[in-house]
Amino acid sequence: MLVLVAPGQGAQTPGFLTPWLELPGATDRVAAWSDAIGLDLAHYGTKADADEIRDTAVAQPLLVAAGLLSAAALGDIAPGAVAGHSVGEITAAAFAGVLDDTAALTLVRKRGLAMAEAAAVTETGMAALLGGDPEVTVPHLEKLGLTPANMNGAGQIVAAGTLEQLAALNEDKPEGVRKVIALKVAGAFHTHHMAPAVDRLAEAAEELAPADPTTAYVSNRDGRTVGTGAEVLERLVGQVANPVRWDLCMETFKELGVTALIEVCPGGTLTGLAKRALPGVRTLALKTPDDLDAARELAATASEPAADAAGA
After folding, report:
1. pLDDT on residue 306
2. Which of helix, strand or coil describes residue 156?
3. Which of 11, 33, 164, 237 could be 7's S-S partner, Cβ–Cβ 3.0 to 4.6 Å?
4. DSSP state of 31
5. CATH code for 2-119+191-310?
């Protein structure tokens, strides 16, 4: 079974959209999306520097647009399940047919603006902790006033809080943690710092008419599949202020019988986690259109048992 996944904020790099705009029809499609949401996606995806695309209000719609564009370029594939990490959940909602592309981009544009506004209240950030035991790491983070905002599995937890709290973490790492890496994000996402954005996003969601998923949609809240469009939307709203349980999402992939996983552009982060947490599952990250042929081949053979695929 194939799982199609979409990365979250921090995956963006300057110019990453450039090669994708060379595909037939891509420039026109991105221009139409840009007009719909009032943001020049082509500019930010090709010419903007790292600081410009670090802006939450820019990064989030840019990532969703890239995910939609790269997934469309794959053609007619049939994943057995879809999921996204953080803002990637909106991309996944479009994959599952819950939202059309324009609705997904409209929602993520409002999400990015609301979260950027909430982040401006206090100087906050996020940092990835590599290694360690969650049973030791989580209480240590809470002692420092930090939130385990992303439980990513595969030996990775992302902490979020004020810059002072993150500085204290650098000086006082939990036992067993090898490294603390600051992330390219502009706020403490998935924590109480984002509570003001929840109400704004709830208002935006009321204007949408979600359809029920046509593909199994795995939620960040608890790793469970969600059967109705209304519940998907409700979870998308609340998730901005609650931890991402990507570890539980990957457990569900296993239960569903995943044999192959493709991560849409800008891929790399989630395939890296899957390689460590889902042994035997073939993975592929879409970075440029050069990866499309291999991704189509992987999708076509995804029904092969994982053990057989690992030796292929």
Report:
1. 53
2. strand
3. 11
4. H
5. 3.40.366.10
Active site residue 86: yes
Question: Tell me: the pLDDT tens digits for 127-145?
Answer: 999 999 999 999 999 999 9
Whether the ω angle into residue 266 lies within 30 degrees of 0, i.e. cis, is: yes
- 70 part of the active site: no
Q: Do the domains at 2-119+191-310 and 124-182 have one common CATH topology?
A: no
pLDDT tens sequence across 145-199: 999 999 999 899 999 999 999 999 999 999 999 999 999 888 999 999 999 999 9
CATH number of 124-182: 3.30.70.250
Show me where the domains of the chain are located. Answer: 2-119+191-310, 124-182
Q: What is the pLDDT of residues 240-295, one digit of tens each?
A: 999 999 999 999 999 999 999 999 999 999 999 999 999 999 999 999 999 999 99
Sheet-wide strand order for 260-263? 225-226, 216-218, 81-84, 2-6, 260-263, 282-285
**Integer Cα distance of 135 and 65 in angstroms:** 37
Catalytic residue among 34, 190, 193, 219: 190
